[in-house]
Amino acid sequence: MTIPNDEVGSILLEMQDAGMDLSQPVVVEFFQLFEKKENAKALADYLSSQVDILDVKLHPDQTPEVWDVDCTVKMIPSYENIVAKEAQFEKLARQYDGYNDGWGVHFADDESA
């Protein structure tokens, strides 16, 4: 698998170097930020109704007057899949006057088994 030399690619290479099999599904968390709680809640409510979303959390950000909507998706963490899902979340967040703020991976406690 060829991984481009950019921010997404760097994270994927770190995951691969840490021993993750990038051809297997993992839980990926995507982050959206909002200045208005009602906008964040509206997106959180929408995402909660989507079949492919495992979990949605709405909480205050570390920055005052900013709200986070974090949601998890189980997916194969290929470069193409991550970039496409980030674009999807960016488009959704903008519809609610927010923006996508990146992603991360949840490491399961039993991955070494």
UniProtKB/TrEMBL annotation:
InterPro entries reported for this sequence: RraB-like_sf (IPR036701), RraB_dom (IPR009671)
Native source species: Thalassotalea litorea
Q: Name one Pfam family in it.
A: RraB
Residue span, Regulator of ribonuclease activity B domain: 6-105
Superkingdom of the organism of origin: Bacteria
**Which portions of this protein are annotated as coiled-coil regions?**
none
SUPFAM superfamilies, alphabetized: Hypothetical protein VC0424
What is the protein named?
Ribonuclease E inhibitor RraB
